[in-house]
Amino acid sequence: MKLRWVWLAALLGGCSTEDGGREHSHTTTTAVVSSSAVARPGRIPYLDFVANKGCHAYWRDPTTMITSIRREVRCPRELTDGDSVRLAGRVCFRESPDAARRGPIRCPYQLIKIQEALRDGEGEWDLSPQEED
């Protein structure tokens, strides 16, 4: 019971200032975060499939809305007409006109190669399949 009264007195009493006045102990400060301090994604790799044109790999910068040149690549079997795949962190997501087909998907080799090239600071990327040793 004593502990409750001590806690209540400390809460209501506040803190003394140097001039003898009282200051509320429950005042809060808000931290201001500048927009430059917020982490934003860099270039995001994409892979699109259009039935008569095949698959194209490219990257898009969401802050500047700049898109790289699209390169024709071999299509993964999972994609159908109108599907696209984007790499978000370590997960790939299928975007499709058919709502039932949207969601996580195995990352196509081409997107992984683009991400590696962007991470290493290379402007160009090699999308040809590598031979295993």
Give a written overview of the molecule:
With 133 residues, this protein is α+β, with helices and mostly antiparallel strands. It has a domain at 44-119. The chain is built from two helices and nine strands, in the order H-E-E-E-E-E-E-E-E-E-H. It has helices at residues 2-13, 109-119, and strands at residues 15-16, 22-23, 44-50, 54-61, 66-67, 71-73, 84-88, 91-95, 103-105. The protein starts with a helix and ends in a 14-residue tail after the last helix. Mean pLDDT is 75; it is low at 129-133.
Rg over CA atoms, rounded to whole Å, is: 27 Å
> Regions with pLDDT < 50 over 5+ consecutive residues?
129-133
Could you give the order of the helices and strands? HEEEEEEEEEH
- Which structural category fits the helices and strands? alpha+beta
In helices, the fraction of residues equals 10-25%
- As a percent range, the share of strand residues is 25-35%
Q: Give the CA-CA distance, first to last residue.
A: 74 Å
Mean pLDDT: 75
Please count the beta strands (DSSP E, at least 2 residues each). 9
Q: What is the overall shape?
A: globular
Give a quick precis of the structure.
With 133 residues, the chain is α+β, with helices and mostly antiparallel strands. The protein is 17% helix and 28% strand. It is globular, with a radius of gyration of 27 Å.
Question: How would you describe this structure in keywords?
Answer:
about 130 residues; alpha+beta; 2 helices; about 15% helix; disordered C terminus
